Amino acid sequence: MTSCFPSGSTVVSGVSEINAGRETGSYVNVAGVLYKWTNYGKGWRLRWFLLRNGVLSYSKIRLSENVNLLSTSDEVRVIGDVSSARLSRLNSSGRRKQQKTIGVVHLKISSFRESKSDDKRFYIFTATKTLHLRTDSKRDRVAWVDALVSTRSLFSLRPLHDTLSLVPSDRFLSTEKLRSRLLEEGISEVLVKDCEQIMLSEFSEIQGQLKVLCEDRSNLLDTIRQLEVGLT
């Protein structure tokens, strides 16, 4: 029987196959249809979501429309029966229409949780927005959340607000212990001062390098937030 999915794609209705990606320490790439809450006027709307290389993107779709959801080169797992049915119609019709991405979420600077009152809902939180999402079944939510957890675990867990506190600008380095120990060993005062100067110079250089890295990271996060706002 010929597969109705693009090469490299697999339907996932649970969590076991996604766990396989976690064992290798690589990104878990998944895709599928989710309901996204828009507003009280429009309510829940279908969106096509793709989690790949640590970035979750989504685009609009219509029930009557067959779209180019995945290319043949995509190595992803497809979650849910609704998603697989849509891909099946795509393959049978042969129609190809590229959908515009309307939103992106970088999991490195995001968090998420499941709804306690609805076993089909979950939420993704970023610096600029909160995505309210709903699946067609409890098993699909488990699969999506597991993929998010697996991907997020690959990134550093350091809070964002710690970025600029790594290297305090008023940090003072004391050489008193070094001086005392060297004098106890009979080292001359001239050599002790040379050692102190070398130590302070090395510390100052490392501190400067760390400050530059922290500033670069802060600028990168600001850029990502601006991109999120622009694509929403």
From TrEMBL:
Cellular component terms (Gene Ontology): cytosol; membrane
One example GO MF annotation: sterol binding
Keyword Transport attributed: yes
Lineage: superkingdom: Eukaryota
Keywords for this protein: Lipid transport, Lipid-binding, Transport
Transmembrane segments: none
Alphabetical list of SMART domains matching this protein: PH
Family matches, as InterPro entries: Oxysterol-bd (IPR000648), PH-like_dom_sf (IPR011993), PH_domain (IPR001849)
Keyword Transport found: yes
Pfam families named in the record: PH_11
PH domain residues: 27-153
BP GO annotations: lipid transport
Function in brief: May be involved in the transport of sterols.
Protein's UniProt name: PH domain-containing protein
Source species: Tetracentron sinense (Spur-leaf)
Organismal lineage: Eukaryota, Viridiplantae, Streptophyta, Embryophyta, Tracheophyta
